Amino acid sequence: MLLVAGGYLATSDATPLPLDIALLVIAVVEGSTAFFTLQSKRVAWAFSLSVNGSCSLVMLFSAPRIRDAADVSILVALVPCILFGLLVLLQSLRPEEF
Fold first, then answer.
1. How much is the pLDDT for 57?
2. pTM (two decimals)
């Protein structure tokens, strides 16, 4: 989802270039860590958990700026933060199978 959003936004002039690049990089990192997490690699699970937690905080504090740049409500701007927070919660509840 982030890869598609980053690719679409990179072709438009609606958002700053660093945000577009960040979305693309996060999408690639998320995909690779998800792949290795499903293979029960503990390092990938820990890295994915820390990346998702960091992204959740970044999206929380950047929601007002995203709201202003995209001209949407604050609830729509908080959707990425909520999704990353949900990922952190689900990954932390994973049973100890490693």
1. 92
2. 0.69
